[in-house]
């Protein structure tokens, strides 16, 4: 006697992804894996691994619809998956993008060490129209919008922080900051700058500079995000495979918030106030969210360098070294 066994997609981890991300699809009712086919967003996906119960897949380029469909013979099973899309290309982001109150997204074209590129910062609208915004900053690295509503940019090449109005008037704001990379503003308006050589500086609104703390040097950049209590969270990839997120208090006390990430980079807070980081953990790349003590894999992606939310918190923008993606959350 033959029994017809239905097929069901039990779970997809994580629940959101952008092109280039790797997802795990748990399936019940497969009859082997030799004739299985999967579409993600109506585009056939490549298998990176397959077993009787779990399919490991890479999210393809050009996805247009959300959802995963598994086919085997006459059987078909579907499950929703929130999919991001490519918004802009030909960038070189090495840290978070930023979004202004009009919804424009700003990304760097950082360039190789000491390289002077035609344009250092681009402005991109919600439809993906990319326009040059600033030139003449060598190795533009981190971006932040200050309490004054102006755009601040660090240069790891010159150790300088630049300030720009949104009509593109550029000035030097602070100098002599080593390999200036990470950039954030604390709750009282002080600028925090990360010199990847091992120092965090605090610059007051009157431009007085002091050392906030010292940390293990980073091989690439420090990434900063201001904490609600007036401190900052800091990442800085090293040669270790077990990198940390540090929490630095307003008085400069350093503690390890979490250790065990691979190449942790840009950070942000989600709409519920949970810390998120672009990193690899246990071999899986993407965005991780801290709702408790351990990181939760939230968005699958390539090796992402940063993230930022829209003003309405209904869109998440993600960058890797050359692309800008958008994930609709509404």
Topology, pairings included?
Elements: E1 8-13, E2 16-17, E3 22-28, E4 36-40, E5 43-44, E6 46-50, E7 54-58, E8 68-72, E9 75-79, E10 82-83, E11 85-88, E12 98-99, E13 105-108, E14 121-124, E15 130-134, E16 140-145, E17 151-155, E18 160-164, E19 170-174, E20 180-185, E21 191-195, E22 199-203, E23 209-214, E24 223-226, E25 232-235, E26 243-248, E27 254-261, E28 267-269, E29 275-281, E30 284-290, E31 295-300, E32 306-309, E33 315-319, E34 324-328
Parallel strand pairs: 2-10
Antiparallel strand pairs: 1-3, 3-7, 4-5, 4-8, 6-7, 8-9, 11-34, 12-13, 13-14, 14-15, 16-17, 17-18, 18-19, 20-21, 21-22, 22-23, 24-25, 25-26, 26-27, 28-29, 29-30, 30-31, 32-33, 33-34
Describe the structure.
Helices cover about 0% and strands about 50% of the residues. With about 325 residues, the protein is an all-beta fold. It folds into two domains: about 10-85, Sandwich (Immunoglobulin-like); about 90-330, YVTN repeat-like/Quinoprotein amine dehydrogenase (Methylamine Dehydrogenase, Chain H), CATH 2.130.10. The strands form nine sheets. A four-stranded antiparallel beta sheet has the order 1-3-7-6, with no helix packed on it. A four-stranded antiparallel beta sheet has the order 5-4-8-9, with no helix packed on it. Strands 11-34-33-32 form a four-stranded antiparallel beta sheet, with no helix packed on it.
